[in-house]
Amino acid sequence: MIYPNSGEILEPMVYKVKKDKKGYYLEKHLPRFNTPLAVYGSYKRYPDRFWKRFNKGNTNLGLMLIGAKGGGKSLLAELIGNRAIDSGNAVVLVSDLSLSADVGKLIEKLSNVVVILDEFGKLITFHQQGRLLGMFSINNGNKKLFIITENHINRIEPNIVDRPGRMLYRIDFNKLDDDTYAEFLATVYMDPVFREHLDRDFLKASTFSFDHLRAIAEEHSMYPEEPYKDIVKILNISMVGIPSIYEFNYMIDLENPEKQFKLVNRPRPINEDIVNQHRDNVVLNEIKEGEENTPKEEPPARGRFGGFGGGGPDVININIEPNNILRLTDSELVYSNPDKKYELVYTKKES
Questions:
Q1: Cα–Cα distance between 101 and 119 in angstroms, integer?
Q2: Whether the model pTM is above 0.70
Q3: Which of 20-34, 122-136, 246-260 has the lowest average pLDDT?
Q4: Least enclosed by CB within 10 Å: which of 37, 197, 257, 307?
Q5: Which of 214, 234, 254 is the last residue of a domain?
Q6: How far is CA 223 from CA 81, 172, 188, 217, 232, in A?
Q7: CA–CA separation, 14 and 30 (whole Å)
Q8: Which residues contact 119 (CB under 8 A, 6 or more apart)?
Q9: Domain shared by 144 and 189, yes or no
Q10: Residue 7 domain-assigned (yes or no)
Q11: Distance between CA atoms of 144 and 91, rounded to whole angstroms?
């Protein structure tokens, strides 16, 4: 047990903050963090960058790592911690959920250390975080490099967010950066067609972690003949994409294709994510991955009504039902109204 005095220099290693009847103290935890030997992209650059920035100044430096679980927040925090230990500085890990904002009294005594506040929103309640604002201040005295990790930015007190004087840096880990993605894939073999599908999903995804990438690559290496969509379907991953939309193109009147009339209300676009909820149930005329997508004949000019939009409640308020989707491809959706009186043709517009 170590009850540090103000400004006390600690042996370079990892400590954990604990609490007993006497108050908060430090406990020796690890000589250093156990991080992978191979790191890629920003994980190679950022530790040196932030450590040099900290050493250059005489005040606190703050770094917020925000994003979904498995995104690499803890890895980057640990890499920065190891960089500090290699330079002869200590790392203090605050991760015990039984602690409170009073832990700031202990941290304020420390100098020239890295302080990692893991899962900050769970660690310190939203209402108590305000008591730590002075601790984060760049003019607080004994300088420290603070690293906050948190899955959801709305769990962090507003006077910490968008305040560079308290937290100079903020990195979003919801999506893997392009450099890390490319550098990792350069180290593994991947079938070109499989890689094309992966690149497409990565480009469109708003959430895509290193854990996702590594899992897909490892599964592909074990089952190289299996199609991309089959591998992704069974993995425990969810890639939330920026959905494309299917925009209304034209309508075919099945009862009277010769009839001409104006369409009063244009049908609303259909979000791809809504369509994908039913994709597994759509089997009629669906073009499967790998099959040739042969051009379809254009319908006759008469009976096609575009530019004005729909003509009734069935058109305006479309609730996608699997049985009413006649054709679903990578570029087009043909939808029939429940009474089978007309078909609506939508063209996919990439986001």
A1: 14
A2: no
A3: 246-260
A4: 37
A5: 234
A6: 37, 32, 14, 10, 12
A7: 5
A8: 95, 149, 150, 151
A9: no
A10: no
A11: 10
